[in-house]
From TrEMBL:
GO cellular-component term (any): plasma membrane
Name of the molecule in the record: Sodium channel protein Nach-like
Species per Swiss-Prot/TrEMBL record: Trichoplusia ni
Residue ranges crossing the lipid bilayer per the database entry: 6-26, 74-95, 443-470
Membrane topology field: Multi-pass membrane protein
InterPro entries xref list: ENaC
Family per similarity comment: Belongs to the amiloride-sensitive sodium channel (TC 1.A.6) family.
Localization per record: Membrane
Primary location: membrane
Organismal lineage: Eukaryota, Metazoa, Ecdysozoa, Arthropoda, Hexapoda
Entry keywords, A to Z: Ion channel, Ion transport, Membrane, Sodium, Sodium channel, Sodium transport, Transmembrane, Transmembrane helix, Transport
GO MF term set: ligand-gated sodium channel activity
Amino acid sequence: MQYINNGFYSYTSIPLLITFATVLHYRNMELTLWGKIKEHTRLFCHRLKYTFRNLTVHGPSYLVRKDVHFVFRFIYLVIYVQIWIIAVATIRQYYDHYQENTIRFTSRTDYLDWNTTFASVTVCEVANIEKLWKLSKRLDVYEEGKYDRFLTEIVFFGGTCYSCLSKNTNDTVISSDYSQIAATFRSSCKDLFLSCEWNGRIINCCKYFRPLQTEFGTCYSNNNKHVGGLKKMFFTTALSKKSEAGVLEISLSQDYESFIHSPEDIPFWNMEYDRRIITPYGSEATVRFSIMDVVNEPEVPLIVPEVRQCRFPDEVPASYIAFQQYSYSVCIIQCRIEAQLNLCNCTHHLSPVQYKDRYCGLEGLKCLTKHYKILRKLQVPGTNETGLDCDCLPSCTEPDYNVVSKKLVEPEFDLKVKPARFILNNIPYQRVTRQVARTTLDLVVAMGNCFGLCFGGSLLSIVEIIYYLCFKRWAFA
């Protein structure tokens, strides 16, 4: 019995001894760790005092002086902290000002040396019911006039296709390639243009007006950076003695709509109506406008677009797969395509050919028609109106166009071909220059001036602090 009891005590005491030894071990480790922390803290405090005593910056050396009473050092510390707060607030305010007011605009009037690019004029064919009727009969898709409206809405798609909702539509037409239908019914350049003149000189229309894919379908544009082939540009020189700085005159074989815009722009549904005019066949149109160019200083591209609040033509976001040049209109078109893809999982058949695999069928066109108010209209910033919310920056190089007058004379009796004239009203005598008001170097200099004014420090003072805290041997603490 005694043996059993001794064995029992021996077996129960072993775990207790192990537990006690473990607790004692961790206790010793804790004491050792705590001792190391205390030792390193003491060394760090000594190092700070040593650093403060030897720094050339004003203030820290006074705080660790033993010959100054504690009360005076405390008062000085309060003042020192207040100066730091003022310095940080000043630097923060200057930084915010740098972010918000980096760019400034000035005007130039040394116009004798300027050569101004004439505006880009884009011509788009508008619906011609008679032509649609003739072609639809020839292509066997015409049945007693039932599909005139459907073909018109397909060929000249403007955001809606109400005839797509009809149940009496030809199955052959429904299953067709809508982009191919549009291409078949639209006029070619040689069929659309009759004559063109630049400053009284006859020119080859199709050499200067190149095909351009827009939201209105295939149009023809001159002076445009997006067109392929020969990029012939029209210029007007400041040394010209003519009263009219530049005159472009065109005559077309049917109704059309003309747009005046910058060379990097593309006509889009929401373009301002004062820069566009519809000219029926036989009518005579005259548009007079003026130009104010925008010039950028070499430092402007160094500022990020979000700060300068504009983009250069070569700053095209990676998601813009269909465009090589950036402009405000390009951004709106891309925004609308993305909205159509999100809402209806397809985009209309007049979109760039890069989206051909995502063109809408009949159900897709019905979806676009359903969301017409959202997709066609742009939302005004700061309002809750229905429309596209596109965060688009303007172009840094787009000139300011001002339409001086716009006149349309319709035919009274017989229909005869009459021209449309686009006239640069006067030679530009003023330019706007975009300048960098505050560069990154200005920001650094301002911060350095504030640091030097408040603490008498410099860039070497920062190096000095790093040296004393990190590279100076701890044995000197």
